[in-house]
Amino acid sequence: MRRSNQRPTWRSGAAWIALVLTACAPAAGASTVPGQPGSGLTASSSGVCQAIGSLPDAAAAERAFINVAHQALHGLAADNRLDRPMSARVLETMQRVEADFSGATDEPSLGLDLAALQAAADAALRAIGEEVPACTQ
Amino acid sequence: MHAVSGVLRRRLRGGIAAAALVVLASSSCAAPVASPLPTSSITGNAIVAEVASYQLVANQPRRLLVALLTADNRWVSFGSVAVSFAFLGDAVGSPSPGVVAATRAPGAVMGDSIARFLAIPGSPEGIGRGPTLTYPADGRGVYAVESITFPRAGYWGVVAHGKLADASPFNADAAFAVLAEPSVLTVGALAPHTDNPVIGDPGVAPVSIDSRAAGGAPIPDAALHATSIADALDAGHPALVVFSTPVYCVSRFCGPVTDLVAELAATYGDRADFIHVEIYQDFEAGKVNQAAIDWLTPASGDIREPWTFLIGADGRIAASWDTVVTRGEIEPLLQALPLK
Is the same domain home to B47 and B86? Predict the structure, then answer.
């Protein structure tokens, strides 16, 4: 079957995952332990903040990113309240950070890329009316 | 095969009904969800089950994947778990599994199976370890029943249960749909003669060949973007084809699976062609590459990724994997191929 102008309902599965997990998560704004999961969509920002605070220890930063931010970032990008360009910014900046961690990039760009990711996550959180956690890193 | 007890079926239905309530309470999930229909509920020590398989078809043996997660973003990883299945109902015309649960339809019951852990490529495999709650950096993966055949289409329930490393018991249930007919190409089907864009094609944006090539970045994994599916078919070459969008992936598995295919290409490039097909031509515009439409678009229009296909030299699909696929599943098939 060929369809020429299809837009896949790409958000449904992720929305489900995000729904189930956020529905069961502690209240937004709950404190997080460094390197361990945060809560709901706000963990997308707080997790990246933890990763930034772990630098220059890249291994610790990666642990904070994977354990705290990664799933929340996917949930944020898949949120139905977010428009596609803003979803794209979150996913694109996240991919650059992942490439940094995997050593796929030659430049020491991790700090800059984490900062860009946090800016994208914060903008997305604001766009959907979620609290943007403070980051003092 | 053992019969599933009435208690088990009542638990499944109760959990599914609870999941349905969550659906009804959430406007973001108000739209009908295409099958397979992932649902979850919280039981015991708050482990959530999600069926990760994209396509299960009645009377066709297929791999079934179940992810076990907790609300605080931990995964149950390693070892194996027991899984039990029960038929929940046909739900013809039903928009949600909650309706199915309410029908209390009797039907086929399947007994216990064992599901073993499949690590997401690049994640620890935990060889020799039993089921353990892990943070994502320490273990991520799904539990797989390697081949299971559901005798009828409709909504089914699964309960996964076992003991964690600290001996605490756990169980988690989920509902999922088994289709009457496949919506994505299955083993034995002729591979579509798809002319997916490759490096050097004029007028093609690099990002539509690989979403990682945004912002002027070079197209990565050049070996995966040198040959089209049509080229491989015309040459009579076997081909391993991964449909994924490493940047815009919903499932979170696209990057690791694409990396795995790139690794295999480096080793087995003399036995098969290796091809990555990017899902999106333009993500922001919601425009999907025609190649992905040719291969992955079910009647519902709901494309899920990643999918990995092995095409034989005869041009037919020899194997396919949805969601997670591991080196251990693909490599023996590549090793069995003759040199090109």
Answer: yes
E-state strands within A11-123:
none
Count of domains observed in chain B: 2
Contact (CB<8Å) B28/A80? yes
Q: What is the span of the domain harbouring residue B324?
A: 206-335
CATH of residue B135's domain is 2.60.40
Provide the token pair at A53. Answer: 């605070």
Query: Is A63–B137 a contact, with Cβ atoms under 8 angstroms apart?
Result: yes
Residues 197-256 of B with CB under 8 A from A: 211-212, 214-215, 220, 246-252, 255
Q: What is the pLDDT of residues B114-136, one digit of tens each?
A: 999 999 999 999 999 999 999 99
* Residue B195, in any domain of the structure: no
Same domain? For B234 and B172 the reply is no
Q: Please give the Cα distance from A11 to B40 (Å, whole number).
A: 17
Q: Evaluate whether ipTM surpasses 0.95.
A: no
HEC sequence for B5-48: CHHHHHHHHHHHHHHHHHHHHCHHHCCCCCCCCCCCCCECCCEE
> A56 in contact with B at a CB cutoff of 8 Å?
no
Give the pLDDT band of residue B250 (cuts 50, 70, 90): confident
Q: Is the pTM of this model over 0.90?
A: no
Same domain, B211 and B136: no
Whether B192 is covered by a domain: the verdict is no
